[in-house]
Predict the 3D structure of the following.
Amino acid sequence: MKRLALHWQILIGMAAGIAAGYFLSSFSWGTQFVINWIKPFGTIFINLLKLIAIPLIVASLIKGVSDLEDIRQLSRLGTRTLGFYIFSTVIAITIGLLIVNLVNPGSLIQESTRTELMTSFGTSAGQSMSVAEAGKNRGPLSALVDVVPDNIIGAAGSNGNMLQVIFFVVFFGIGLILIAPEKAEPVKRFFEGVNEVILKMIDLIMLIAPIGVFALLAALVAESPSPDIFKALGVYALTVLSGLAILIFLFYPLLVRFFAGISYGDFFRGIGPAQLLAFSTSSSAATLPVTMERVEEHIGVEKEVTSFVLPVGATINMDGTSLYQAVAAVFISQAFGDDVTIGEQLTIVLTALLASIGTAAVPGAGILMLVIVLESIGVNPAGIALILAIDRPLDMCRTVVNVTSDATVAIVVGKSLGKLTAPRPKNWDDNF
């Protein structure tokens, strides 16, 4: 009997996790049971994906950069990648601002609900503000300084330092390009072998993906706050989701169709499992290994493109986060009765763009950067307490957009460089 396809296994795991979370939370002991006996399996699954993130980036990016024939190829690849990422992020922010101004969800927030949320989540908001305050007085070039590590071993010790690792790896790859080919070849073969081992580890980890997403969603449902809060913020959530849906189902497929000639169905069949995993983990970094495998093996973008574009995208390209920050900033301003001027909205575009580059590819990181966006337009950052109640499910959705955007740019850049070929005759599920 043929094994059920991976994406169907993940969907079943998600549905079962939601059902189990609701069922168990109806008992007095249920929530604690989920936290103690189910949630740890989701944590283990995420930890396994994070475990191989740094080794995958090091091996694949060194291989990808060193395979380029000269520095001019790297310059072409880097320029096009950065250009498309900035373009897609600005479009995402603009779509978010257009929708939130049209819907005006903040005007529907009741005073009693706002007071309840501020009371319930004030501590979390204060923690977020204190973290942002620590970096508030840093110099204008501090972000540039942070890209260059003073200790690569220390930088590789945390997934939050992904950009520093990428800097070192690209620098290392450039060195391989510049030395004699006969001396570079053994190093390239070593990292190519490491990359193959990591890809096989991904296959093994994905065997437990349905169990992992079951545990993650069961815990999310069991730990969710009162449904009354979701009802009060429903319009805001729908506003964010509408913007994210436009990006996923309209903007990205049109880009891929126009620039690469890939059909709507082939695009989503290719990246579907990565999207589902992104939804479950809320982490672009944790999903990166699967995203790379899907774009290369199932869409046909060559490794030298995916190994550069996708790790960089997981670090600096956050379309979903940028859209969310734009909508949330205007929503909070509206909820406080403040009108956001055109000038302030242009400030949001610029600040959200820069914030997306500095946002770590981990769950909940966008909420910290939102503090900076709010302060840029003179809105009290304590207002983020209004949205913390539903931030987690929205975080899951915007991570899907982040991952889809990364894949889209990889496809477009690959096509522009002549590095998009027919996918290999391999089915992910045939590995199991």
Summary: The chain has 19 helices and no strands. The CA atoms of residues 54 and 156 lie 7 Å apart. The two ends are 13 Å apart (CA to CA).
